[in-house]
Design a protein that fits this description.
Layout (H helix, E strand, L loop, with lengths): L4 H16 L2 E5 L5 H15 L4 H4 L10 E3 L16 E6 L13 H28 L19 E7 L17 E4 L5 E6 L7 E5 L17 E2 L26 E6 L1 H6 L7 E5 L4 H5 L2 E8 L6 E2 L16 E2 H12 L7
Antiparallel strand pairs: 1-9, 2-3, 3-4, 4-11, 5-10, 6-9, 6-11, 7-8, 7-10, 12-13
Helix pairs in contact: 1-4, 2-4
């Protein structure tokens, strides 16, 4: 069907943001407040388990599922490990999540969450194609048939030492400087907002490590204060209910930058601890990483090939993801 005026206007806003900042804030993508609250509640219960290391399936890059223990990952290899722990689930029917050992609340939430973001990912992929003016509006969404490489990651950042600038790379931060791997990422933040999340526009989708750039240029990411994932009293506020009031940050990943020949750049981001209050409390977020299907070929569209030519060779979704996961962990896997 022909897009409506509202859809065209929305896509134009997405295009402007992805060419400039690379971060978009969306609402109305199908997540209601009830499920949002239950998901964060279940996440807190999961990470509060005293015996989680023994009970939960351990994470491994060969399947990208399960529990990643605290300080097990380096998103910036120039720093000590990130001060976080995580639990990953994947999309059925290709994947069967091993939720043994998880609280019942978490098990009940997982299936509903997967269903919401299966639909949201395909809708946003259509919006991206419309935003870029592609002749085939299904170019991106057609690569999300199986969603066999997409991942939902529940994240917990325990209280930690204060490091308000993140300048010293000998010190750990909650999330090291990086760009996401895939096409795009939905990020849900808790009631304290996006506290500590910072972004930086970079060329070539590289920051941190040999690329440098840790010391300056970072901008604090804020979410609108009228939305319930900022206001802890939102259940009592009738104006802040319903599926159109839950917001998500969406950022462009390295694979989308590759797909568009860097017309859209991947945006670097990190999480630091800016104040004693932030350092003293737990931080929770939920990230939904959207990657094209394993066998999908990602090639620069001719529309994006200018005088500089094509910067990137074709690559499958699986080959690209495994390359990036191997950079993340000391556990290496082969395609």
């Amino acid at each position: 069907d022909k897009p409506t005026e509202a859809q065209v206007s929305c896509s134009e806003s997405i295009d402007r943001a992805c060419r400039q900042e690379g971060f978009v804030y969306i609402t109305g993508f199908g997540l209601d407040e009830e499920l949002y609250e239950k998901a964060f509640g279940a996440s807190k219960e999961l990470f509060a388990m005293d015996d989680k290391v023994q009970k939960l399936q351990p994470w491994h890059p060969s399947n990208n599922m399960g529990y990643s223990r605290y300080a097990a990952e380096y998103l910036n290899r120039s720093r000590p490990p990130d001060m976080k722990e995580a639990f990953n689930i994947r999309f059925p029917p290709v994947h069967t999540n091993n939720l043994s050992g998880c609280p019942n609340t978490f098990v009940h939430v997982a299936d509903r969450f997967l269903s919401v973001f299966q639909k949201a990912a395909r809708r946003y992929a259509l919006a991206c194609a419309l935003a870029l003016g592609l002749p085939d509006i299904h170019l991106f969404s057609n690569t999300l048939d199986k969603m066999d490489l997409c991942t939902i990651r529940f994240l917990h950042y325990p209280p930690c030492d204060l490091d308000s600038t993140g300048v010293d790379t000998h010190k750990p931060i909650r999330v090291g400087e990086h760009t996401d791997f895939g096409a795009f990422t939905f990020l849900l933040v808790g009631h304290n907002g996006a506290e500590g999340l910072q972004m930086k526009s970079v060329e070539g989708a590289q920051v941190g490590g040999l690329a440098g750039g840790e010391a300056s240029g970072w901008i604090n990411v804020e979410v609108p204060s009228h939305l319930p994932n900022y206001n802890p009293n939102s259940p009592n506020n009738p104006t802040n209910t319903g599926p159109n009031k839950i917001g998500a940050i969406v950022n462009t990943g390295a694979l989308m930058a590759r797909w568009t020949n860097d017309v859209w750049n991947a945006t670097a981001h990190r999480v630091i601890v800016r104040t004693p209050e932030e350092a003293s409390r737990d931080r929770y977020s939920i990230a939904v990483f959207i990657d094209p299907d394993a066998e999908s070929m990602v090639e620069v569209h001719p529309k994006f090939v200018g005088e500089e030519g094509c910067k990137y060779e074709p690559i499958t979704g699986l080959a690209f993801l495994l390359m990036k996961l191997n950079e993340l962990s000391d556990k290496k896997v082969k395609v």
